[in-house]
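User: Could you check the structure of this?
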Amino acid sequence: MRIILDVMGGDNPPEEFVKGAYLAVKKYKEKITLVGDEKIISDALRDLRAPSAPFDIIDAPDFVSMEDDPMSITGAHAGSSMAVSLRELSSGGGDAVVSAGNTGALFTGATLIEHRVRGVRRAALALVIPFKNPILLLDCGANVSVTPEYLVQFAYLGKIYMERILGVDSPRVALLNNGAETHKGTPTVVEANKLLSDDENINFVGNIEGKDVPFGECDVVVTDGFTGNVFLKTCEGMSNFMMARLTEKFFGGVSGKISAMLKKNDVSRVAKMFDAKEYGGAPFLGLAKPVIKAHGNSDARAVCAAIGQARKYVETNIIDEIASCADIFSKMKFAPISKRERTENE
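Assistant: Sure, the predicted structure tokens are below.
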């Protein structure tokens, strides 16, 4: 297996991504293609005293910044490390791509260069959140606007992922909403609720409010990318806030230091549960080949975890399972497909 790593994306220096790749090589024993500024990559490998055998290097010093327009990946930044990584994947030069770069550009590039599985109208960014039971949230940032049918497809994608990756039998699917009642929410969510309720292939448990998500009432949470991203970042902010308060209580003052002797391991375990670096990244479900979006501020440990996630994604044949749903997807009554969407999916 070969994983393609875009080392120029994200908030941290490229050296951190090279270091993460080296950790992954030692842990997973797979080959990795490093795409980015060749001089920086070579210098970083030399500093790490890493053997060159497990790595191929593709020189691509240009990169897509977080401020760049997503469409720049096919224009001004067509030679960027992200675009080159995706083209390398498309041409068969690797089995998966990992990038911590601009989410919109990665989604656009992956859709235009790699395309989607036949029958999938929109790929979705999916992330496992470590609540009481692990919960898959999708979409969490790729599609700002959706139709009811897109939400139904997201439910199928989430169901397959939870079954294959986490071994959850008949995962419970819920729609994120402002109320549990079937009449609540936007017209899109109300219609999606009806469609999912009538779908015998999905274990649909109804609407779920944000406050109930952490308590294990479902396994998959389906929503649009705007709402999902706001929900995700709110969860991240609250977890950081709670950890700061716990640290202050257990480690502040004389009594806190005594308590810390007893509670340090407990606090560390809680912190680890909510540490994004432990999970690495999020796959774009519905693409024809695996593309993993790593967290923007990924360090070497997070990069290693994202590579491990890409490796598992390939091994579990999720894409073949999604492709097997093509007949089901073909029966969904989508709005007429646009010329652009048709081109993207060819």
